[in-house]
Amino acid sequence: MIGRTRHLLACALALALLGVPASAAVPAEAEGAWKIRGKGFGHGVGLSQYGTESRARNGRNFRQILRHYYTGVRIGNVKARQVRVLLDTRRRIRFRRAKHACGRRINPDRRFVLAGRSRVRLERPNGKVLRRCGRKGRATGPGGVRIAGLGRYRGALQARATGSTLMVINGVGIEGYVKGVVPNEMPSSWQRHALRAQAVAARSFGLATSRSGAFDHYADTRSQVYGGRSSETKSTNRAVNKTRRKVIRHNGKIAVAYYHSTSGGRTENVEHGFGGGGSPSPYLKSVNDNPDRISPVHRWRVTYSNPQMRSRLSGLFQGNLRRIRVLKTGASPRIVRARVVGSEGSSVVSGETLRLRLGLRSSWARFERN
Fold first, then answer.
1. Where are the alpha helices (DSSP H) in the chain?
2. What is the pLDDT of residue 31?
3. What is the largest CA-CA distance in the chain?
4. 235 with 205, same domain?
5. Among 124, 168, 122, which residue's Cα sits nearest to residue 146?
6. Is residue 268 assigned to a domain?
7. Residues 159 and 187 in one domain
8. Assigned domain for 270 exists
9. CA distance 283 to 267
10. Which of 60-64, 160-164, 254-258 has the weakest average pLDDT?
11. Rounded to whole angstroms, what are the CA distances from 91 to 83, 119, 160, 198, 322?
C-alpha cells in the first residue's frame, strides 16, 4: 500500500541493525562524505504502525488509536462486499482444491489447469481440454482454492484472458481480503488493539480505493500486501473478526485510510505526502506521534561519499555538487521542495525525488557535507 507494510517493517529492522544500506555504506571519515540524518519510514500520512503499537501497549483501544490518526472520523459499519485482487499474470494457472470450474463439477483432490490467451480453457495437467470457458474462467471450492506457486486463497480463482497471458485474480469477500492483508502489513505478535486498528484501516483503504476494470487491487505495495489464506494467523484473524465490517468514515464516506511504518514523531498532511501536489483532506492531517519512538528507525543516519552523491543525483545539477538546500517543508519537517545546488547549475526537486534517488527511508531528512 501506499502506506505502509510488513515487509517494510522487516526492512526497517534490518536497516536499523546495519545502520545504512549495504550498497551506500562508506566509512564516516571518508573524504568529502555526506551525512544524511532523518526520521521515520514511509510517506508519513495517516496511521503510524509503530505509533499504533506503542499506543496499544499503553492501554489505548483501536477506536481511540484510529481517531487520533484520522482527524474527525467515526467508526461505522459497512455491508459485505467482494473485491478482486490481481495476484499474477501467467500462460497456465495450475490449481487444486476446487469443486467447480467453468461450470463443471471437478474432483478437489486432483490438479487442473486454466490455460489460454484470447480464450480460457479448463484442462488436465496433460493438456487434455475438459471445457472451453470463454474470455473468463472461474474455479471455486468450499475452503478456497490452492494456486500453484502462490498459495491458498479464500473465495474464487478467476482467470481473465488478455490476448497474451491470463490474469490470475482472486475474487474474495472483504473480510477474507483483510484477513490476507493484516499479517502482511503488521507483525502478528503485536498488541491486539494495534492489530484491530490495522484491520479497520486495511478494510477502509481496500473499499475506498477499489479501481475500475478487471480487478480492484494489486497484491503488493501498489495497493496493500495480500498473501491470501496461506499467510493468515490466529491473532490477525481474531483482530479481523473482532472488527468485522467496521470502517473509518468521514462525512458518511469511507475514508482512504493511508498508513505507514514509522512517523518519526509527527505524521504529515496528505497534500504534502507522496511528493506533494495532492489535495488536502480534513481527516488526513498532521498529528503528534511521540509514542512512535519505539521504532528502530524513529531516527536514522546514512553516509555517502561524494562520488555516490554525484551518481545518485546525476542530472539534477551541473558542475560540482555543492549542497542540498531545503526550500519548503510540510506540516512536519518532511521535505516538500529542495534545491540541488551545483557549481554550474541547480534544479528544484521534490522531497520524494530525493528520497527515491538517495534510497532514504523517508523525506524527513537533512543533509550535511563534511
1. 6-18, 49-57, 62-69, 174-185, 192-208, 234-242, 306-312, 351-358
2. 53
3. 72
4. yes
5. 168
6. no
7. no
8. no
9. 12
10. 160-164
11. 23, 11, 11, 35, 51
pLDDT classification of 277: cutoffs 50, 70, 90: confident
Per-residue pLDDT averaged across 2-18, rounded? Answer: 45
- d(CA 56, CA 270) in angstroms, rounded, equals 24
Q: Hunting for cell 493511508 — which residue is that?
A: 258
> What is the pLDDT, as a whole number, of residue 2?
47
Main-chain phi, psi angles of 316, to 5 degrees: -95, -5
Say how far apart CA 100 and CA 76 lie, in whole Å: 36
pLDDT of residue 1: 58
Whether 347 and 308 share a structural domain: yes
Same domain, 63 and 192: yes
Share of the chain above pLDDT 70, in %: 91
Residue pair 177/255 in contact by the 8 Å Cβ criterion: no
Helix orientation angle between 192-208 and 49-57, rounded to the nearest 10 degrees: 140
